[in-house]
Design a protein that fits this description.
Helix content is 47%, strand content 28%. It has 519 residues and is of the alpha+beta class.
Length: 519
């Protein structure tokens, strides 16, 4: 503005003119805006009218189309007839064929653990070691006592042998004394015989003397003859005296021999008594030896029990006891070892199923054969089928009164020790074969208020809703007991689209690939 010339300044309108011009422009603009608003409203109204007319037209067109819809497309499957196996399924739990609980049998401190937890151990393998020093000392003490008692036994046996020798010797002396008595008795008898002979001679000589004396007085015999007779009589008397002396000596010797016999017999009785004492001492010593041997054996057993070994081949569990723990027979389980190849699977069967399988009129051998003929499958927790087939092992002795079930066990080979005790799964087995069974896909069967029905497609492609009686489920198929015939076609996919009497466009039913799972 500072650069404008005076002429330019003179040519600029004044403020009043400017205000008047602006007022006229405002009136002109307001008029234009009102015209534009009227035109916009008119255009919108026209569009709305056209949209309403178009909507009415489309609605009428759809109504006409809904009145005559095209037939729906559905997938149909043919009713299949064949022999099918009927499966029964039970909940199962794995368990070791043998489960050995390892416990301490003596008291002591645990020194070391000699196995790897969770690994395979062999029968006789060392698992734990308890401090053996107290048990070694007890064994040494027991062996010392055994040696002492064995020494006493040997001494008693020696004494018995000595007393038995003495008994034998004194018995020999008794026999010798008895022989001397007999000898003396024989000498006595001989002396008595000599005495009798001498007495007889003396009587004869005395008779001679008595006869010769009167004859000598009469001088009938000579003096010499009388003297001879007197001498002979004297000799006979001397013989009698000598025989009597021999008898007395023999009697004395017999008495002495008998006294010797009594003495030796007393010695025999003493030796025999001593022998009895020796035998009693031997018996006592033998009892002491036996007790000492038992103590040694017990000490050896206790020492051996400080080395805890595995009684079976199997998988060893995690150790409960720690090194340094004071163990005793009441300390509880140290670890558990399970034989898992083969492995047992326990499952329960209802009483009704058991009776149906057992057949009351069958023999025990037939029932065993029926159960042992079961080919068992094990379905694991991840719904995979264990590759090894199992066989029936044993049935429990009784039915559980609380649950009405009986416990059974099957055996499965477990070469890689994959299965472990305590796993859950399902046991599946073919219990019977249903001949000429009618099968339809499971999804073809619907249920309405407890009534099962299927949609049957006739030759004219018309649908008939038909009630059916169903049986077992076989994989992805259902057994139809009644209501269908072989070869009929049922809607397997799109059942919700059809009603009784409706016309459909059938297509073959193509089931999805079945997963390997339990039915």
């Amino acid at each position: 503005m500072a650069n404008k010339t005076t002429e330019e300044l003179n040519q600029e309108p004044d403020e009043e003119q400017i205000n008047r011009a602006e007022t006229e422009n405002n009136h002109s603009n307001r008029s234009v805006l009102e015209k534009r608003k009227i035109l916009t409203i008119a255009a919108i109204s026209a569009v709305l009218v056209v949209g309403i007319i178009a909507a009415i037209f489309l609605f009428q067109k759809k109504t006409v189309q809904a009145a005559t819809p095209p037939p729906p497309e559905v997938e149909v499957a043919e009713v299949e007839q064949k022999d099918v196996p009927i499966y029964a399924t039970w909940i199962g739990t794995t368990d070791g064929m043998v489960n050995a609980e390892i416990r301490a049998q003596v008291s002591g401190y645990l020194l070391r653990q000699n196995y790897t937890e969770g690994s395979f151990v062999s029968k006789g393998q060392l698992l734990f070691e308890i401090d053996p020093r107290p048990f070694q000392a007890a064994l040494d003490q027991a062996k010392g006592k055994l040696a002492e008692t064995e020494g006493k036994l040997g001494q008693a046996q020696s004494q018995l042998a000595q007393t038995q020798a003495q008994v034998g010797q004194t018995e020999a002396q008794v026999e010798q004394a008895r022989a001397q008595v007999l000898q003396m008795q024989a000498q006595l008898e001989q002396a008595r015989a000599q005495l009798a002979q001498a007495q007889a001679n003396q009587r004869r000589t005395q008779l001679d003397v008595n006869k010769y004396k009167p004859l000598r007085e009469q001088k009938a015999v000579t003096q010499q003859e009388l003297d001879n007779a007197v001498e002979a009589n004297g000799a006979a008397n001397a013989q009698i005296k000598a025989a009597n002396a021999q008898i007395e000596a023999a009697n004395a010797q017999i008495g002495a021999a008998r006294a010797a016999v009594s003495t030796v017999q007393a010695q025999v009785r003493a030796a025999t008594a001593q022998s009895g004492s020796s035998r009693a001492a031997i018996a006592s010593a033998k009892a002491a030896v036996d007790a000492a041997q038992a103590d040694v054996k017990a000490a050896e057993i206790n020492l051996g029990l400080t080395r805890i070994t595995s009684p079976i081949d199997g998988i060893a569990g995690i150790a409960v006891a720690q090194i340094g723990n004071l163990l005793n027979p009441t300390s509880g389980v140290l670890t558990t070892i399970s034989t898992v190849d083969p492995i047992k699977v326990y499952f329960t069967m209802s009483e009704q199923e058991y009776l149906a399988a057992a057949e009351l009129d069958s023999t025990l051998a037939e029932r065993r054969s029926a159960f042992r003929g079961l080919d068992l499958e094990l379905i694991l927790a991840d719904e995979t089928i264990y590759p090894e087939r199992g066989r029936f092992f044993v049935a429990d002795r009784q039915v559980d009164e609380k649950t009405g079930t009986i416990k059974l066990a099957g055996i499965f080979s477990n070469p890689n020790n994959t299965l472990r005790p305590g796993q859950y799964g399902q046991i599946r087995a073919v219990t019977k074969v249903k001949n000429n069974a009618l099968l339809v896909p499971q999804r073809a069967v619907t249920e309405l208020q407890g009534i099962f029905q299927v949609a049957v497609v006739g030759e004219d492609n018309k649908v008939e809703i038909r009630p059916v009686k169903i049986g077992e489920q076989i994989e992805r198929q259902t057994v139809i007991e009644s209501g269908l015939k072989p070869g009929e076609k049922v809607v397997a996919s799109g059942v919700q689209k059809v009603a009784s009497g409706a016309v459909v466009v059938p297509k073959p039913y193509l089931p999805a690939p079945a997963a390997e799972a339990a039915p």
